Amino acid sequence: MTVAERAQTPELTPAERTRSSRWSALGVNRISIIYVQVATMVLFALWLPETFATWTTATGVLSDNAITCIIALALIVPLAAGVFDLSVGYTVGASSMFCAWLLGNTDLGTLGVCVATLLFAAGIGIVNAVVVVILGIDSFIATLATGALLQATILIISNDQILVEGITPSFTWLGQRNIMQLTVPVMVMFALALVLWYLLGHTALGRQIYACGLGAEPARLAGIAVNKIRFNALILSSVLCGVAGILATATVSAGSPTVGPGYLIPAFAAAFLGATQFRARLFNAWGTVLAIVLLGTLDAGLALAGAPLWMPYVFQGVVLIVALAMGSLGARLRGRRRSLRPARARRQSNG
Amino acid sequence: MSPSDRSEVFIRLEGLSKSFEGNVVVDDVSLSLRSGEVHALMGVNGSGKSTLIKLLTGYHQADVEARAWVAGSPARLTAHGIVIDGGDPLPTRTLHQDLGLIGRLSVADNVGMITGYPRHRGGAVDWPEHYRRTSVLLRRVGAGEIDPRQEIDDCDAVQRTQVALARTLAGWDAREGLLILDEPTATLPEDQVDRLFATIRSLKSNGVCVLYVSHRLNEIFEIADRVSVLREGRRVISRATRELDRPSLVEFMVGPGNAPLLAPPQERGVSASAAVTVTDLSNRTLESLDFTVKEGEILGFAGLIGSGLQDLPYLLVGARRATSGRLVLGDRHIDVPAMTPRRAKRLGIGLLPADRKREGIIGDRSIVENITLPRIREFQRRGWLRTARERGDASSWVERLDVVPPEPDKEIGLLSGGNQQKVVLAKWLSVARSLFVLAEPTAGVDIHARERIYRALSEQRDRGTPIIVCSTDISDLVHTCDRVIALDGGRAVAEFTGPEITEDAILREILHGSADKEGVNS
Fold this sequence. Notes:
- The complex is a heterodimer of chains A (about 350) and B (about 525).
- Chain A is mostly helical and about 350 residues long.
- Chain A is built from 15 helices and two strands.
- In chain A, a hairpin with a 2-residue loop joins strand 1 (about 180) and strand 2 (about 180-185).
- Chain B contains 17 helices and 23 strands.
- The radius of gyration of chain B is 26 Å and the shape is globular.
- Chain B has about 525 residues and is an alpha/beta fold.
- Chain B has helices spanning about 5, 50-55, 105-115, 125-140, 155-170, 195-205, 215-225, 245-255, 310-315, 340-345, 355-360, 365-370, 385-400, 415-430, 445-460, 475-480, 505-520, and strands at about 10-20, 25-35, 40, 65-70, 75-80, 80-85, 90-95, 180, 210-215, 225-230, 235-240, 275-280, 290-295, 300, 325-330, 330-335, 350, 380, 385, 435-440, 465-470, 485-490, 490-495.
- In chain B, the strands form five sheets. Chain B has a six-stranded mixed beta sheet, with helices on both faces.
- Chains A and B meet through helix 1, helix 10, helix 11 and helix 15 of A and helix 10, helix 11 and strand 19 of B.
């Protein structure tokens, strides 16, 4: 280390370092959504003390958004590995429809139907993976294309009709049964978030998945099977969408040809909003859940307040822009501070 | 008599100097350029050629104001290039080595990016007129046969250079101006160079002064009227080309065996047994290469671009596909075409890749995560990643290689190039038990990091690991290697051991080797 280099790096004592990392853990940059969430809840609670600040509202927000959240969680694995899956909405729709059709047309029973639907979803995932990884088509376009094929599948199965036949309580408990008003989809959502938190944040495989997304070439040279990871990530996201499809059919007790595609945008928004939280610039499970909860709370509060129909969309858009701008502005400000320092040092050495 | 002897000195520069952070890169250089001449600027890597050009174009400012004259009247070097006192800037155009074309756009669009488009009154582009103007520009550089509607990707290498040259010259009507060509033939196949030379000769006959940068000796003797050689920032000579021959030009470029910057490796006994044997290694650039590396030996490979040097390290770890080759590692026989990076890692073969930014680091992540990436599974116990152990392991590497700042949690993208390279070195040192392969180990690295990297290599050699260093920077080889093989056209053409390893000897071999081969072809 040269004298000049040493002068540029202020030495921190270990105690200082711990203190600074503890502060940054609570920093607005890392968990801004929690602050916004608390502020939102306080505001609505003061505004609507009778209706908003209730257990029913809280569990309502969760169960209304659990399926969207499962889809957003399904997305973060391929996103972390560096591939888009834009077919998620259609995969949910096709799985939901396939599931409803099985219930009306076969005697597989609840478990059998679920297994068959998940296999069907895995098949969709394999098609996506073959197109993206083996044919080498850019995932953004490739999964749009498979999405179109899935839309056709939905219409073929449903004949553009809502399927209700055979969807009995022995199946619909999957969407409607609850413990203290927490429904099965909510529990599935939390369980899935827990699993993904462990997988992405605390295993070697998780580290390798992120490496594929952040630097495919260094990852490949490091002996990581980038293609295999991406292949499996696309299958995993489809299977999780299959889970979401089953739960969607169970929740509304029907297979509707219009269910599915509408989930795409909110799920992507939540995944990207989540990536600004906890683990800076990495897609992660709890950030995604938080993002869903915040957007859901805004929705519910405004609905209770009797706001006009367009209002929640305005809030959603504004929250997304503000949160993402905070992330990128923060990064740019940090970058500027960094780039200033060596520039000053250079000027001094020249002068 | 050649035209250069008749013509007057057009541009005269004296006392050009430039230093960066105390390092003198261009040192009191004087240069005289005549109109209607091709003036070659030569020198090995790091001799100051590109800095000198950047001074002329105004990209860099000289340390002290240089003295300049254009056609006899005093002038100054400014941020706009050479400006005649009380007058206009001297028309100067530069064709950079990488051309800057966009492959998927048409020739006409690539020209239009620079020249703009003619328009109809409503504002829509007048395409027929734009194609016509593009054709006129192309004809000026002798490339009238190129269809302006053609995509750049469908043009051959010469056509691309011609398109870039045509748009560089667009709107440039100067009979008396300066055209700087920075290694225009670097990406051209040998047999296509003549077509480009015809273009250059026709510009020259219009009175343009061409400053031509290259290190291909043959070309210089063919195209240049005069030659200036830079060595370590100083101008060594300026002479008419016909007063020079190849050996004397190489001598001027290389210099009389100057003292090495860093201490040469010490003489040591290398064990006699081969630890690694490679036979019949081939791909599209290498032709059936055979070599061995002994335990505790650093073997170097030298060569120019296209010699196979760039592929060799990647083939050994399976990062690029070999067409044939056997690798014997201890008692294991491995088929090189079936090698993958994953398998190489398991065998204890590490590769430090050449392109640090694209292949070496994940810029967003910490030093720790970058160091442990290939070995991340080793830090998982009972299903959980043990980050404390991981951090401890990486910290010891940070300490061992003097990474600055010594903060393992820092994003690697924030470090200097030299310190990033130390981290990449640590990453692969930790993997390379049985063979360590390095490609361009000191590219874009400052002198302190360079010295530390060399030391780390000799420490690793002393532990007994066989090491292969492939570098176009010959000082890497001089400072680390026990033995050096010079490559040319995919084959080994010379081998140097111990005291024979000098910058001179290796440079002579790779420059002459290619010159001889070209001589045979022509």
